[in-house]
Amino acid sequence: MSHPWPEGVRFGDEGLTFRGRTARDLVARYGTPLVLVDETVVRERCRSIAEAFGRALWAVKAFPAGALIRIAHEEGLGLLAATGGEVDACLRAGVPASRVVLHGNNKTDAELRLAVGAGVGLLILDNEEEVGRVADVGRAHGVRQPVLVRVVPGLEVDTHEAVATGVVDTKFGVPMPLALRVLRLALEAPELDLRGIHLHLGSQLLDASPYEAAIDVALDLLVEARRELGWTAETLDLGGGMGVAYTDERALDLRGLAATVRSRVVDGAAARGLEPPEVVVEPGRAVTAPAALTLYTVGAIKEVPGVRTYVAVDGGMSDNLRPALYGSRYTMALASRRSDAEARPATVVGRHCESGDILARDVPLPSDLRRDDLLAVAGTGAYEYAMSSNYNKVGRPAVVLATETTDRAILRREDAGDLARLELPTAPRPAAPRPAGVEVRPARVRDARSLARMVESVAAEGRFIRTEGPITVRETRRRLRVGWSPDHAELVAVADGAVVGHLGIGRTPHAGTRHVASLGMAVAAPWRGRGVGSALLGAAFDWARWAGVEKLSLEVYPHNTVAMALYRKFGFVEEGRLRAHSKKRGTYEDEIVMGAWV
């Protein structure tokens, strides 16, 4: 039986350790749910696959993180992209386009233009229609695009039907009876350089026999192609699907598979009078699945007498859809401590509002499991994060890459700001009446002392504005001397002679962005929720219209959800995030950029 835990995992008196770090310590730094990836294992598996097969493409869809894409490239693998988005991810990761291959059963025109224009090394034609479409794009770019034709071998394999792709009835590829026709069309298109054929059998295959059968089918097709078309293929792409251990499976021996494939191709080609084509493989999960685990925090534990024990964790189908989608199984273990209690079956469920949100049924866990314990799930390095979602407005987990000496987050945890970043205004900008007893007006120099005290009180909270330390009256007075002009405005809300709110706004200094003004606002704690912020924002829009400003911009901390809700009412939308942009009390904080058209 293969071991489902990454190589760097140990279990001892402190529970699970990952490359020498305890689960508790890692969770204290990064929170849960948390995906831990063993960088050493990823690199070793990339090198081993490259050495065994010669030419291999890592299927980016397994875990499309830029750091992992770069590692695969550095360790000698090409990259297989299923969409334009994955091509873009490879390019952003610094991979030369020539090392990227694009496949997919329904490529858009924009994806074809991106791939051909960038110069991808291969483009895999999935159907007859794509021959003409790719030729048109090649003509427009003045290039001859190298291509493969994906054919369907029509083979049944022992895997879940949802991930079987080489059967006759599939959405992928050219059916075998039509293969020669599509190959002929590709050969006749001067904009295409037909290099060979591609096929794929399915995922999580645990023995070599399907590959052997597929090689025979492919070589028979190449014999026909030579006879009918006078064409000899130089490349045979056998796809991926190499299975790994999740529970009690025996992972496919990749070096053994490589030797079997090489022998079958060389011997089969010789028996058919063919030159053996170069073999390409496309491992996905085989690279990253065995290198990762996920940590969860235990929440509610529910006993149904005589039926089962439910253990709820702080993740679920939003970060790992595979159990609900495919019935996938995983190995789980208590990670935060050692337990000598008797194991009993438990069903581990997520936090989502779905009865099907089940991560594992009847897995053995210690009978003394309790709230706030940590659970570890092995083998989560492929198709878990890649298929994650924000169902129930839950953010995706953080992903940490570790070696013996370092650990670093390569994907940060999504927060409330991320979950709202695509929201657009749907209602008219609200009227902004002045609250009773409050005057909103341009600031005057004599407001300086009161304004400094108000800003200092907000700064002392340490949560809402960048400012820290004492606020001098002299500096405040200097700012207020130019309190109203077409380039700058200082607005205050005053109640009973005291400043209770402030908004500063000014044009950006560059000629290309003179149509934009940036603002910052603070409201004294006792006056929040009473309309002061709305009144100041309304006045800011009035100034912008007077000054000819077309757009307003601001930055806000992700945790300041009340302020963000107010800004959205006035038409502000998220436009980006400034990573660790503020340093407050020794701690770095992100800022969210929001903008609104006047």
Features:
28% strand, Lyase, Ornithine Decarboxylase, Chain A, domain 1, 598 residues, 3 domains, TIM Barrel, alpha/beta
Plain-language structure description:
This protein has 598 residues and is α/β, with parallel strands linked by helices. The protein starts with 8 loop residues before the first strand and ends with a strand. The protein folds into three domains: 103-283, TIM Barrel (Alpha-Beta Barrel), CATH 3.20.20; 290-411, Lyase, Ornithine Decarboxylase, Chain A, domain 1; 439-597, Aminopeptidase (3-Layer(aba) Sandwich).
Helix and strand arrangement:
Layout: E1 9-12, E2 15-18, E3 21-22, H1 23-30, E4 34-38, H2 39-53, E5 55-59, H3 66-74, E6 78-81, H4 84-92, E7 100-102, H5 109-118, E8 122-125, H6 128-141, E9 145-152, E10 174-175, H7 179-188, E11 192-198, H8 209-229, E12 235-237, H9 254-271, E13 278-281, H10 285-288, E14 292-304, E15 308-313, H11 322-326, E16 332-334, E17 343-349, E18 358-366, E19 374-378, E20 398-402, E21 407-411, H12 416-419, E22 439-442, H13 448-461, H14 473-480, E23 488-495, E24 498-507, E25 516-523, H15 532-547, E26 551-556, H16 561-569, E27 573-584, E28 587-597
Parallel strand pairs: 4-20, 5-6, 5-13, 6-7, 7-8, 8-9, 9-10, 9-11, 11-12, 12-13, 15-17, 25-26
Antiparallel strand pairs: 1-2, 2-3, 4-14, 14-15, 14-19, 16-19, 17-18, 20-21, 22-23, 23-24, 24-25, 26-28, 27-28
Helix pairs in contact: 2-9, 4-5, 5-6, 7-8, 8-9, 13-14
